[in-house]
Structures
1.
Amino acid sequence: MRRRTDTLVRVDQERSDAAVVAAIATGDRRALETLYHRHARMLMVRLHRRCGDPELVDTAVQDTFLAVWRSAGTYRDTGGEVGAWLWTIALRKLIDQLRRRPAPSPSATLPEPEPLPAPGTRAHDLLGRLPAELHDVVRSVYLDGLTTAEAAVLLGIPQGTVKSRLARARSVLQEDLR
Amino acid sequence: MTAPTVHLDGVVVRLGERFTLAVDSLTVGPGITVVQGANGSGKSTLLRLLATVVAPDAGRITVAGRTIAAAADPADRSGRADRPAVDAALLATRRRLGYLPQHDSVPPRLRVFDHVDLVAVMRELGSDARSRRAMVHRALVAVDLDDLGAERCGRLSGGQRRRVALAAALAGGPTLLVLDEPDASLDADQIGRLTRELTERAGAATIVVATHHAAWSTTLHPTQRIQLHEGHVRRAD
Amino acid sequence: MIPDLDARLAHNLDVVMAEIDAPPRGRFERLLLRARVPEPTARLVAATPTLRLAWFVSVAVVLLFAASAGDATWDDTGRLAVLLTLAPLVPVVGVALAYGSGADRAHEVSVAAPLSGLRLVLLRTATVLGASAALTLLGVLAAPSAGWLRLAWLLPAAATTATTLAVGSRLGMRTAAGLVGTGWTVLVVVIAQASGDAAAPFRAIGQLVSLVVSVLAAVALVTSRRRLEHWDGR
């Protein structure tokens, strides 16, 4: 089946992400398709690093763009990345999915660990100082801005474990900085 | 699923006193089959047989080698024992079937998307609601009606309603597609769109199209043509 | 790296666009979903009242009229008897209107679909029955009080509906509805005349007979379900 969107994406190429989101807020369906073509692949790849179940990832991506359609008006162009905004929504939608279904063992939901953030950034330095088992918790809470409860769902571990690992991470970092 | 072959053997359908459709032996599919004939020649009756809407009064119909209809023959006691197998084959055939009747099959009060979705529910498409509705959306895109999903069918033009019914038949990519005059009340653009859609699908489906328009049927490049005359197959090649 | 990523990306976009383009689900359908009715069933059921809304409104008007405008010279039992006689006809008329080629343009399409014809008929009948029962209840509650007799239409309504379906699977729903509707009315009038009691058909024996007829008709319907799978255009 032919898609009309291919040509539209090209036409839309010069528009900034923020302008596309603004167009979505006015009810422009084609703009939503444009945003999807720009970001959905990346979101799926990143969600897959957090969750190995394709069905949950698919639903999370669908929910993300449906949420964008309904709430594009609440996006404030403060110079922040649209990609980061989408990622926050996508992660929350994935957590909603995980909450709905009892997660299988954590190892099954983490097919491959997410690579460290780009070298030279603060995030890279921060995670580099920590033992590997603390990475996921720190990434979820400090970099993705999740609550400890959300991180527990995402990682498939008890909330208490998230808190104790966070405490350990903090003490490691404090020692490092001393 | 591959395109099924449909075989009719000694099939007779009697409609009242006046009309009888009799098909000695006919094999349809894979690819596009065009059915032609004057009004009252039995085109629609043949298509309704293939769409499992009308049961034959005599004879046997098989789809992909399995019997889906065998008229009860009083002398043949084995027919009764086969009933569960025939029922299962009929169900399997309907799962792969998309059917566009000749008459207007679109209820005026329903919205465009809802009608196609309702047919999709009855056709048991999709593993869940979202994937079913995605198929409905794709079908509406295929007939160029996705912008009118929320419109009531009663407010559409004849050509648009025809395309709604067409979308209901095309949704989910059925491997057996029975279309009774799909070109009726379509404009030239839409007929071109339909031609591309059908030829694109012809490699993986058995498509039976009844039409009055010889010129259009040529552009479909059918693998087979059936000419009906007064309830009999005059020519099949 | 991720298998079928392109296909899944295309599919997910279709899902998103479908949800955006689709008209919002109606109130009745959302109510059914909240009551944990499976989504496909809710769709099937919700579409029936959409098609029949005009009919429901007219039935409501008729019943309220019958309830309020009874002849002043009738006694209460007489007025109630009229309502009780009308009430079992409501679902019969509903079934007649909800089925058959004339009523449902998509009838042929539904026959060609794998969804069981029996299941579709029962689902739609249950919808018609539920809606008409609710309307009838309103009409009867507005009627002069006569104790339990006000609910005495329930079993007769089940009997007339089941009989219509059973006969309809052989003769067509409209013919069946005509036969059952006429038969029911004649029966009630004859019994009432013969016994000199307008409510006679609705007392204990009548209820028992209704129950038996309902069960017999239901059995007949289920055993003849194959007839519902092939549409007979003749």
2.
Amino acid sequence: MTEMLKIVDLHAEAGEREILKGVNLTVNEGETCVLFGPNGSGKSTLLATIMGYSTVKVTSGSIVYKGTDITDMTVDQRAKLGIGMMMQRPPNIFGVKLGDLIKTAASESAESVLADADKFKMKNFLDREINVGFSGGEIKRSELLQLTAQKPEFILLDEPESGVDLENIDLIGNKVHDLLYDKKGCGRDIQRHVSSLVITHTGQILDYIGADCAYVMKEGRIRCSGRPMDLLKEIKENGYGECGACQIINL
Amino acid sequence: MSDNQSVKEALNKKGAYGKDLDLDHYEMAQDSDRIDDLQSSEFAKEMENVGVVADEQNRSGTIVMINNSVSHCSAKKQEGLEFMSTREALEKYDGLKDYYWKILDPAKDKYTAKGYLEESDGYFVRVKSGYHIKTPVQTCMLMNSNRTIQNVHNIVIVEDGASLEMITGCSTSHHADDALHVGVSEIYVGDNANLTFSMIHSWGKQTGVRPRTACLVGKNSNYTNNYVLLNPVGSLQSFPVATLAENASATYNTMCIAHENSDIDTGGMVNLNGKGARAEIMSRSISMGGNMCARGRMVGNAPQVKGHLECRSIVLKDGGSTVAIPELEVHVADVELTHEAAVGKIARDQIEYLMSRGLDEDQAVSMIVKGFLSGSINGLPPALQKELDSAIEQANLGD
């Protein structure tokens, strides 16, 4: 199986504090991997490091994407290679309209994405300043609409279901599904064509996208890997207290 | 009011703000020819660049002043609207005693003194009580001779229950780079009336600009002042003052780019003199290495007045200086005045957010800067929005 993303012994600092303390992780082509871990374990920092945000400084180790070392690349270089990210708390961009960013970011036809805005319940937001005054659910839908325009091959999803009400969870789950799966087929023929790394606390998003593998992160390191549902069950029952000490490590 | 002697003495009086300009550096410009057809005029392009449309479509009237004479004045016949040169109005209305040099003191500084002593021409616009003028009136002040002064005296009157939109474009032709524009404007808004006054300016790299504007706003009335300057200028200093009666409101929106070697000092003052008056002063500017000073001053003199003042500036290049000076002053307890000022670079997370969508860094900065500027003016007449968007698009922001 082809490796889409390979992270080797990655150390990174944010605010002069070491957050990632030697992360090793692989996502294969067409795979969805889940990243579990307690608050503050470094999951969002890992995603920010993969995207290349300057809030994080890599001190050693490497990030290899489709065979290319991207550790020192700029954010836009990574985006152009096909990496996209759904942020949990994206910044407000005053004065810039969502529709204008979508037009600029669209890899193919912006018109068809803009025409589909209604399906994301975002039609009335295209003329709004990006993220300014958006609710939790609106931010998620805006991020998904932008990613739909961008068409990345590898998607970083930071808690796609957090802060979303029950009415919206279906919409968001289905749109995440659409981003990851090839819609050409139908029923059982649907193929996954995009890889992803997904942070989730509740596992709710897994009802929509399924997942091939899971990692547990704690204190800046990957402590464990395994089948997503097994790990989720274990975490729900016992929490993260024993992670790192338990015997189901399968790295 | 000042007598002639004190006005003459004021010719040596420096302005309260901004660089002191030497009036002796300039001569009085010659009168210029009449222009009957704006579209075939050599200045058509300059006018369009500052929002003044040469075909005069969707405009109620046009006055073009070149150097010191009114070269074109056309008004569609419209009940309730009077539109002529200031000199014509002075003659017709016996010196306009209630409006001419009534809210500005000619001895205020050397610029007002010069305008007073030269008996400058300009435009006179009056909307009679109860009339709503549907399409904007446009005026254009052009400077066409190097090392000359353009003296302008404008009077705008919107009577009780009336409304008006004005678009004023000012520009210099290429060979008149080193010229001085001194514009005196006295604006009177009656009770229950509305005035939107929008200015797009485009000067030369050495041009001096010293507008002097005062506005009286009556009960329950709204006054909006939009000011846009995106091109290089030599030295511009402007500080319009509005005085509000009961429940009146004033909004100032200012958008400037301070290019290298440009020296800009803008802002405005609102006196909240009537109970329940409201004001908003918004300034957004970009420094590309020039000097940018954004001032705002609100004075609360009556109960239940409210005001907010915002000065935001993005500094894109080293070399110049950016100063934000918000001032609030109150004389009664029951007042709510607030201010916000921010000066500095664009937040890195905003740039990288756009980069994560595939934009390179320059594209991301340019998108944010253009958004920052265009978001600063709310309530611009729709007729101007297109001109403004294209001016922002063309503004040299280094991308």
